């Protein structure tokens, strides 16, 4: 499989996944599609990891490998800082209690709290994904130098399972203590980098061909996928979680299908750019749009659909403006938006 083929299908996938994520944050059709929409974030992590480690694996020297990792980190940090600054007014309105607390006499505690939110939690809405991608990728990269990936897979699966069902452990003193320690450093269990480790590792293992890329029997493959998707829905109905154990086989099976799909798209780069801009931008817009719509109507179904359309439209208008202006010298900074 050529790099071009993989990049095209994965760029298309990321574009579709970004729309699914907008559905989640605008609460559109959640009662029916929620568990399947939730696959978008794990797949985003897996795709990003696969593309990065694919580059790392073809590095001809240690220096080139380090440069690839360094460039990835700087790109993530620039992306994060760009949207943090752009969305600061909305973030301040929503989260001023930690961004600029009234009683911050101890500047050291305030700075530590700020760093915690930047690296291990969330600042602007949906920002946790960027931070989790950055920190989680570095953790996987350095740990895999010391520990076999299959061992890491077992460890991260246990960690992921614990986090999936963390809400059920609050009545057990031992586990409740663990959760308290966890939340002290990593904020919400389901929106910080440890939850991403398993997906990043899976992407790495696909890139290293430790997980078989080929689908040998499509009948068996589709049967496995259908069973896993049904299991995902049943798990959602039984436990009402936001993350699911059944996501593991589903994501692996879907990602394998993507890598076995050969398409060529002239606008693959555009799709990649649009998805990259939409992800950090949409959630802040969705919050504002839903707030306004709730003042106008109490029909939650209507609010969900209208906020989805408006949020996605604003994101695409922003993409158009950014792509039009970023090549002009005064607006060159806009390239950091993606």
Salient structural properties:
338 residues, mainly alpha, 75% helix
Provide a descriptive summary of the structure in words:
This protein is mainly α and 338 residues long. The protein has one domain. The protein has 14 helices and no strands. Helix 4 runs antiparallel to helix 7 and helix 13 crosses helix 14. The model has no long low-confidence stretch (mean pLDDT 87).
Principal-axis shape equals: globular
- Number of β-strand runs: 0
Number of domains: 1
Helix content: over 70%
Helix and strand content put the structural class at: mainly alpha
Helix-strand string: HHHHHHHHHHHHHH
**Which runs of at least 5 residues are low in confidence (pLDDT < 50)?**
none
Q: If you average the pLDDT, what whole number results? A: 87
- Quick one: biggest sheet? none
- Fraction in beta strands: under 5%
Q: What is the count of DSSP helices, taking H or I runs of 4+ residues?
A: 14
User: How far apart are the termini?
Assistant: 27 Å
How much is the radius of gyration in Å? Answer: 20 Å
Please outline the helices and strands:
Blueprint: H1 3-25, H2 30-37, H3 40-57, H4 62-86, H5 88-99, H6 107-120, H7 128-146, H8 149-164, H9 173-186, H10 193-207, H11 218-239, H12 247-259, H13 268-296, H14 300-325
Describe the structure concisely:
It is built from 14 helices and no strands. It has 338 residues and is an all-alpha fold. It has one domain (3-337).
